[in-house]
Write the structure tokens for this entry.
Amino acid sequence: MTNFNGFTSSETFTQIPDSLFHLLKEIEDVVELKVTLYAIWRIEHIEGNFRALSEKDFEAESLGLDIKKIKLGLQKAVKRGTILRSQHEANVFYFLNSPRGRLAAETFANGQAKESIKSTSAPRERPNVFKLYEENIGPLTPLIADTLKDAEESYSQEWIVDAIALAVENNKRNWKYIEAILKRWKEEGRAEKQDRRDNKKDGQQSVDRKIEQLRKRANNK
């Protein structure tokens, strides 16, 4: 057994439905439990509308299981109803049995989501804005993590970084203040400090410099 050094403050959160904990007394097979938890984790971190896993997405090395056991675990989870198995033609995908998952599974079975299918990969290291928020604003709760994900879809990384920097400068370390800045910039327009002729590489370098400055400030608090 490998000793676990403990959870860190820079980790992402995975939301687990409370009803799963009520099922713990009934789930006797650790393989089924592993497969179920892994599915929740992977699907929670999938970007885009097609949130499902194929059998090959259940990585044997990460689970500590061989392919045969993974298949058995999936069968038990599907039989119990925590995971849904949906098939269209030769394609088979697994969905969480949630309102969103049920709708997606039905849509896929009807052949309406075929164009959205793409291979998934294990969650990447948390994007910089998550670390910046935790280092400079406050704890990264599941609710805040979801809020930041939504913000990334509406605003550029540079805007979010700049808004966090303004919140720090004005000692207004809360998301409502940051969100108000972003909304104002979006509604009223924002005078960009950077020449629009700069290429994307230069723009990313600017963001990286701002991120580094914020981190230095956080470390000196």
In short: The domain at 128-219 is CATH 1.10.10 (Arc Repressor Mutant, subunit A). The first strand starts at residue 83 and ends at 88. The chain has two domains: 18-116, 128-219. The chain has a mean pLDDT of 83.
